Amino acid sequence: MPPCIRLAMAGDEALFERVHPDVFDEQVDPELTRAFLAAPHLNIALAIQGDLTVGMCSGVVYHHPDKPPQWWVNEIGVAAPWRRQRLATRLVETCITEALRQGCSEIWVVADPTPMAEGFWQSLGWARTGERLAMFSRRLVA
User: Fold this and answer.
1) Where does residue 15 rank: exposed (0-12), middle (13-18), buried (19+ CB within 10 A)?
2) What is the pTM (predicted TM-score) of this model?
3) Of 75, 37, 72, which is closest to residue 58 (Cα–Cα)?
4) How far is CA 91 from the centre of its chain?
5) Structural domain includes residue 132
6) How many domains does the structure of the chain reveal?
7) What stretches of the chain adopt beta strand conformation (E)?
8) Which of 5, 11, 88, 96 has the largest count of CB atoms under 10 Å?
9) For the segment 36-62, what is each residue's pLDDT rounded down to a tens digit?
């Protein structure tokens, strides 16, 4: 039986207690999970096999003064044993459905322009709109 896909909401913290180590970059923190699920503009679709979370796609409903709401796909992760089974596609499709429900006019992602990333997003019918990716960050210390 394939994993079920669902959007996590406040009160679904237990879904983050058993997560395959390939899904997130770091260990899931219960306090951060509670804060994430409580924020109305943050969203996450989960792939669940039995009681194990094996995939996720997180997104932000992005509001700006000169644009209607848009959905930014922040991160996607699928555990190795479940890859190449359309799980990432199903996670993104769930996010698209929720983005439409929330009145978003567009859904977008910023990804490293690797053949794997380009192949995945183009297989979903997404158009590449940029040529290069440069990320800048600054550590904040109080």
Assistant:
1) buried
2) 0.92
3) 75
4) 8
5) no
6) 1
7) 4-7, 42-49, 52-64, 67-78, 106-109
8) 88
9) 999 999 999 999 999 999 999 999 999
